[in-house]
Write a structure and sequence with these properties.
There is one protein chain. The protein is of the alpha+beta class. The longest helix has 9 residues.
Length: 95
Amino acid sequence: MLRIKLVKSTVGHNVRNRRTIQALGLRKTNSVVELPDNPSVRGMIHHVKELLFVEEIPGDPTPKKGAPVAAPVEEAPVKPKRVAKAKVEKTEEEN
């Protein structure tokens, strides 16, 4: 787990940097988030490293008490595909 703190304002920085900060879940200066340590988060941190203070938190990345937990996703039953009805030409006898 990584604890990330926004220590400098995004004012005066380009839009890409501001959106990277938003994607990390940071809003205001001195706001703190805890995110899992994975390559995508590390890449975002590297992109805006001059604005952040980052520290590693020892421990497992289990959610804290009271945090919402995602329910297991059940697969929907597969519906059979609809088959177009074949056009049948009427013969002279049927008319």
